[in-house]
Structures are given as C-alpha cells and as structure tokens.
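Exercise 7b. Backbone tokens:
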C-alpha cells in the first residue's frame, strides 16, 4: 500500500479515486449510506481520513461520485426493445437488480446533496442532466409515440419514482415485520412491479396528450 499512497501521476491519482469508489460501493452491501462514516471508508481503503479527503472532501461527495458511476454503468448495459409493455418491464427489472444505484437515488436529495460544496453539487447536477438526456434518447428511440420532450420528462419521472418507491419497498426489519399484518397488506410494495406499471401508465398518458394536441 505504501507505493499506492505515494501516487503522484494522473494515472495513479485516478487509480486511487477508483479504489476509494470501489470500497465505498462495497460497503453499501453491508450498511446503508447513512451508517457509513468517512473514517470507516478510509480504514477499509487503507488510508487516513485526511488522505481520502484529498480526493473527496466529504462522505457525501464520495457517494455522489458512486451514484454517477453506477448510473452510467446502468445506461451502458441498457437496451430497450419491443412494445411499451416490454420497454417498461425492461426498465423496471434493470433498476430492481441494481440496489446500490436505487438506494443512492433514494437518498440523493436528503443525504448526498446536504454536505457538498456548490462546485461539487453543480458538477454532479450537470452530469446527472446528461444521464437524464441519454435515458430520454433511449426512450424516444424505443417508443416513437413519445416526443423527444416527453421522453425526457418520462426519464426524469422514472428517476423520481425510483427515489420515492425504493425505500418504501425496502423498509427496515421492524417495518417488514409490522406489514406482515393482513390489515397492512396495502403497505407492501413490490418495487419492480409497481415501477413497471407506473411507466406504462405515464407513457400512455403522454401519448394521449400528444394525440390530443396534435404533436
């Protein structure tokens, strides 16, 4: 690790950043983001917290980068084919199988964006907008009944649905036990199925509006 700590070239610096992000993502298989401290992250990387802070000033900055990387990897793997139902099913399934991405989306507004500088926030938002545009392009190509504008809006809506539904579909142990009560059956949420149905409903709505206004 000593040679790694003395990294100075751009390639070595990038390697260290990627190593930090890899460990940060791995930690999410053990704990939620809110339970992971910068100290624990640094310990697992094999650096001091002050050394990690040279690359990412806060824990939140680390996880914004993990989110950006995870969203890009998701889009790289995404192929949308078939009719509207098949496209919706593919989108829902692809997100449901990426828990790290979905959890980070769900804590973006109330955790990750709370302890970062204006510069880091702006950089993340600009990259997020590019991801959203890329998703919109995929939707527009797969669903020609959508205009480019409404495909972009649908992309943003899918992001917001994921943010809201993921924590509801993955509650803590106490809540999981509580909703086993038959009287609370309506509180049990299947993330993939609900997201799929919402995408279909919203797509139909956009297509209907487009027909009505002749666009």
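Sequence design result:
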């Amino acid at each position: 690790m000593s040679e790694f700590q003395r990294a100075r070239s751009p390639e070595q610096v990038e390697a260290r950043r990627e190593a930090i992000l890899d460990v940060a993502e791995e930690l999410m298989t053990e704990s939620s983001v809110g339970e992971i401290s910068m100290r624990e992250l640094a310990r697992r990387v094999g650096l001091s917290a002050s050394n990690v802070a040279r690359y990412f000033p806060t824990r939140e900055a680390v996880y914004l980068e993990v989110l950006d990387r995870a969203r890009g990897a998701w889009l790289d793997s995404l192929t949308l084919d078939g009719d509207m139902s098949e496209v919706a099913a593919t989108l829902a399934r692809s997100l449901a199988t990426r828990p790290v991405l979905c959890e980070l989306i769900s804590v973006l507004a109330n955790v990750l964006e709370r302890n970062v500088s204006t510069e880091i926030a702006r950089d993340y938002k600009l990259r997020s907008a590019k991801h959203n545009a890329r998703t919109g392009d995929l939707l527009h190509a797969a669903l020609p009944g959508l205009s480019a504008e409404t495909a972009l809006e649908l992309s943003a809506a899918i992001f917001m649905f994921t943010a809201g539904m993921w924590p509801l579909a993955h509650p803590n142990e106490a809540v999981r036990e509580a909703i086993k009560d038959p009287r609370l059956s309506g509180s049990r949420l299947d993330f993939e199925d609900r997201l799929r149905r919402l995408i279909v409903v919203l797509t139909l709505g956009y297509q209907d509006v487009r027909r009505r206004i002749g666009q």
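Instructor comment: The chain has a mean pLDDT of 92. The CA atoms of residues 51 and 119 lie 20 Å apart.
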